[in-house]
Amino acid sequence: MSVKVDIAAQYKWPGDGEYFIRLAQLESADVDYDRVMTTQAVIQVTGTKQHAQNQQAHTKAREADKARRVQVLLEVESKPKARSKIASKPKKNPMPTGQVFQANCGSSEREQINTWLEDAYQWVLQAEMCNPFAKEASSICVQLAALWFNPSDYDGGEAKFASSVTATLTRMKMHWKDTDFDCDPALCRSKRGEGVYAFVYPGDRTQTVHMCPFTFSTDNEAEKRQTLVHELSHFNFIGVNEMGERQKGEMDFYYGEGDAVNAAQANPIKAMNNADNIGYFIRDIGLKVGGTGVLCPTWAPLVVTCVVLVLQWSGIIR
């Protein structure tokens, strides 16, 4: 049997030729493969030169786009501004720009993604500042950390929270501007792509997030923003997953809020290395859900989401 796959972004190939690979331990909570070292396959790698040229072209295009954005900002800043007697409100931390959209991202998709990016970035900044072990930690920080990670129930939980959750958020912030977006990936149009929000390839150094059309059509505004941080946590150079004894992105051990909450109680370390736990923690910190109050964003559809979350926290609904 012959299978053709694209693994260009997963490894650094010195050139075309024949390579031997071993099967790694399957990254699944339900499967344990006990013949890792006895399994190997021969693969024929081609196209390494073209891949290197494509990478160089991609880098040049990104740098040119960044230079154009900087020039536009400089021109805007150089224009005289009318003075106002009304004191302006303090601005939130500006989102770093530099994201690149593929040609299949229309103006509507770009506008929506930019809005989600702006909101999600502010969420990440707030979540990064949450240290549930600090004396000055807010009640929301403490409660949400317990809900999604339960670090206090693990010996050495404080260090693990800092080296896994906080480190992931810091790296995500650092790489925020490097994201590329693909708005119509082929996989989304297949049967496998039904109901899929987005996906990434963890070793992809172009940091491309493949957005499925389903994401743009759903009414769940909070989930759209959560999807971005969830997917970014998967990249091996962003997520800090300590379970495999090597650096790699966060995993999908569990999907959905219910399983993620249960995971935190049953296995805090897995929860701290699970993409959905990271994503929902960031979302709830950003929405300020929990503790004694809630602050909902201005998007109308999300008000219902906020109300539901508040009712869940109060125990009125489950």
Describe this structure in words.
Helices cover 45% and strands 7% of the residues. A hairpin with an 8-residue loop joins strand 5 (198-199) and strand 6. It is of the alpha/beta class and 318 residues long. The chain contains ten helices and six strands; from the N terminus they run E-E-H-E-H-H-H-E-E-E-H-H-H-H-H-H.
Please count the helical segments. Answer: 10
Class by alpha and beta content: alpha/beta
Q: Which sequence of strands runs across the widest sheet?
A: 3-4-6-5
User: How far do the termini sit from each other?
Assistant: 49 Å
Order of helices and strands: EEHEHHHEEEHHHHHH
* Global morphology: globular
Q: Supply Rg.
A: 22 Å
| Estimated share of beta-strand residues | 5-15%
Q: How many distinct beta strands?
A: 6
Core attributes:
single chain; four-stranded mixed sheet; disordered C terminus; 7% strand; 10 helices; two-stranded antiparallel sheet; globular; alpha/beta; 6 strands; 318 residues
Give me the secondary-structure topology.
Layout: E1 17-22, E2 40-45, H1 48-78, E3 100-101, H2 107-128, H3 139-148, H4 157-174, E4 180-182, E5 198-199, E6 208-211, H5 213-217, H6 221-233, H7 257-266, H8 268-272, H9 275-287, H10 300-314
Parallel strand pairs: 3-4, 4-6
Antiparallel strand pairs: 1-2, 5-6
Helix pairs in contact: 2-4, 2-6, 2-9, 3-9, 6-9
